[in-house]
Amino acid sequence: MLEIKDLHASINGKEILKGINLNVRPGEVHAIMGPNGAGKSTMSNVLVGHPKYEVTKGTVTFNGKDLLEMAPETRSHEGLFLSFQYPVEIPGVSMVNFMRAAMNERRKYQGLEPLKAGEFLKLMREKRAFVEMDSKLVNRAVNEGFSGGEKKRNEIFQMAMLEPKLSILDETDSGLDIDALRIVADGVNKLKTPDTSTIVITHYQRLLDYIKPDVIHVLYDGRIVKSAGPELALELEEKGYDWITKEK
Amino acid sequence: MKQEEPNQYVKQVAEETYKYGFTTDVETEVIEKGLNEDVVRLISKMKDEPDWMLEFRLKAYRHWITMKMPTWAHLDIDEIDYQALSYYADPTKKKDGPKSLDEVDPELLDTFNKLGIPLEEQMALSGIAVDAVMDSVSVKTTFKDTLIEKGIIFCSFSEAVKEHPDLVREYMGKVVPYRDNFFAALNSAVFSDGSFVYIPKGVRCPMELSTYFRINAAHTGQFERTLIIADEDSYVSYLEGCTAPQRDENQLHAAIVEVYTHDRAEVKYSTVQNWYPGDKNGNGGIYNFVTKRGLCAGESSKISWTQVETGSAITWKYPSTILKGDNSISEFYSVAVTNNYQQADTGSKMIHLGKNTRSTIVSKGISAGKSVNSYRGLVKIAANADGARNYSQCDSLLLGDQCGAHTFPYMDIKNDSAVVEHEATTSKISEDQLFYCNQRGINTEDAVGLIVNGYAKEVLNKLPMEFAVEAQKLLSISLEGTVG
């Protein structure tokens, strides 16, 4: 599904990623953990093609295609989804119009006709119920006046609508209380199929209680310094990151 | 709004290529450049006008020569040589117009195609002489019968001068006197043609009246004059303009619109203005100086202005209402877009004279490129206007960092019971917003369109349906290539 080789990236000339290697196969859940400033968010932003970051070296292949060559919207059409750490508000643009534009752009890319208004609204209703999102939120402008938890739930709602092949959850747990966390995690789990993969970026073990990773990677100073099974999360929770970074 | 009921006409026009309009009899001569009393007389003679009309023109002309072009607007305008212009251009014999679509600016054609304008309309709009391309006769007659049945008068201004002189004499210049301002005086002296509407007592006009597609009028539009009179308890919705960019060799446009409402009458006036804005480097384009004003003369009468302004190199326009009748209401909803080197100084004036009068101003400016977009508004509450209310909201949206947005709100309140509110915001489309859209699969251009239309929604919703759809497309097209 996703193959990252020796990925280097910088922002404003400062190198943040210093050679990432990662392989994600269909159906797998990978967790990326690491201390602040290790490059976790940079990694997710680089994968979805944020223009602020510059890739200086390395390759990323997504389902056999060169991901780095694609425009951000093409990456989305190809099935890559980022649940943003800080979802932005877009005043004036209703969720309905926003999602319809997103869905229909993707369908156009796939050579499909746009959804009829009725079909689209039905789909919205289904998916909204699926992630237990308040119907009021769907009638508002994108993220406008949403609480932190509502924004995160809205991300999962969009993920449900777009049915991506690979989802990156960038600190989706930050700012969530335990109930919201459970609902968001439930949504992610329900959306999982044997063909889809997930990369979970998190500081804490607690999200991994709900979303079970197959592999945990520790990102430190722009590199993956340790990869292990789910048990690593517990160890990190107990001992922090120091023992790994010192090991290096 | 009363507009929401299903409107057979709207549906009909949405499916038609031609909108209701009328043809104007036009002279075939062209007047030499320059302006003097003889030219004014000649215009009047060519139009076969009665003496009182000529007198009006001459008075206006004599006043105009004593005036200077106003310079208070936040606009950078090269000096206009009024003697170098021709004041009566023949619409049917365009000397320098393109002969076929091959000669028309390909970018303009591209825009036509994006708006889905049929080929015949494209030719007409680009200034190619087109004779009777549209199946207009039947459409016209059908509607005209309906209108006559109800006693509604909808005709060209010239026709009204001849056929309904009493009405014209009673109302012309009542709302916008020729002394009002430089451009009003100029227009009053040399106006070419325009529209005249009279809605009799108690009549609700069953269709949107539109100048949308009066091909010939588009070319005589240099100095248009519109007069709308709504008698007691009547209603009319009037549409003006065109969503396609109109090529016009006339650099200067100075129009007058007068709206007069009697007791409990309502006039809804919608404009989509997309005159040629000039090219990317700021060459060419229309100078658009418009005096639009309504007088809510009767009690509980209402005038609504809705405008979407995307064209013209320079726009100078302040649709205003004098709320004279007690309990009268006025609204002004505006979206003004400027891109490249366009300049707009636009807004509204609400003059409250009557008791319990209410007005609303919602102005949305969108600036891109190197353009300058200013809101200028006046809210005046006279000493006797007890219980007057005004709410003004002026929002500016900036695209890029080389454009400018300015707000000049003036308030003149002489009555303590008045409630006047003013809100203003300035926002920018952020890189993060665009990237968020990109990540969901929406490319940057579409994302800008989505955000801009969302921003302008409040105003677009006020437009009649078929206009709103085209105006939406127009906004996106006007701003293409401004971000990213």
Short descriptors:
heterodimer, A: 248 residues, Rossmann fold, B: alpha/beta, eight-stranded parallel beta sheet, six-stranded parallel beta barrel, 13 helices, 19 strands, disordered N terminus
What does this structure look like?
The complex is a heterodimer of chains A (248) and B (484). Chain A is α/β, with parallel strands linked by helices. Chain A has a single domain (2-247), classed as P-loop containing nucleotide triphosphate hydrolases (Rossmann fold, 3-Layer(aba) Sandwich). In chain A, 39% of the residues lie in helices and 29% in strands. In chain A, helix 6 (148-162) packs parallel to helix 7 (178-191). The longest helix of chain A is centred in the middle third of the chain and has 15 residues, at 95-109. Chain B has helices spanning 8-15, 37-46, 51-64, 106-115, 119-125, 136-150, 157-163, 165-171, 182-190, 215-219, 431-439, 444-460, 465-478; strands at 153-156, 193-199, 209-210, 224-230, 235-241, 252-261, 266-273, 287-296, 302-309, 314-317, 320-323, 329-338, 343-346, 349-352, 358-367, 372-381, 389-398, 404-413, 419-428. In chain B, the strands form two sheets. In chain B, strands 3-5-7-9-12-15-17-19 form an eight-stranded parallel sheet, with helices on one face. In chain B, strands 8-10-13-16-14-11 form a six-stranded parallel barrel. Chain B contains 13 helices and 19 strands. Chain B has one domain (13-431). At the A-B interface, helix 2, strand 7, helix 3 and strand 8 of A face helix 11 and helix 12 of B.
